[in-house]
# Entry
Amino acid sequence: MSSKIEQLIDDIEIYIDNCKYYPLSSTKIVVNREQIDDMLRELRVNTPDEIKRYQKIISNKEAILNDARAKAETLINEATVHTNKLISEHEIMQQAYAQANEVVTSATYQAQQILDTATMEANSVRSAAMQYMDDILSYLENLIVNSTNSAVASYENLLSGLNQYKDIIQSNRAELHPVEEDELSNVVLDNSETEEE
# Structure
């Protein structure tokens, strides 16, 4: 929708286009003075109102632009603050992850060292225990061998002594009952016949 001033200017242009040329001229025209004065007067009357209207629009436009700029700056500032906060939180998270990784790595290393030390100590204790048991078993084995050898020797001495005493006893008994050789052989023969029956 065009303004009143634009409409009046269009009307003036149409009026001029419809005017007749001055005789023998292609640039000069004949106008009705009253009619053109009325149009120009109306243009002058409407111009201040129209200018005020445009100024108001321009002023509103500036206010709208200023408001938009302010809102845009506010949004940019909020976005910047939010971005900085996110960046800060991201950096904090990265630091936390890095510290957590360091703690895990350190704990893993310490745990491995403790495990290695415990394994070495366990192996050392196991070796010492095995050596101790071997020493005890060796001592017991030697004790049993020595005791067995000593017992066998004592038993053999005992048997030897008992055999000697038996021989002495038999000899003493033979002296108590002297028997002739014939009788002795008969007794032996009788015994053998009895055994055969």
Summary: The longest helix spans residues 33-176.
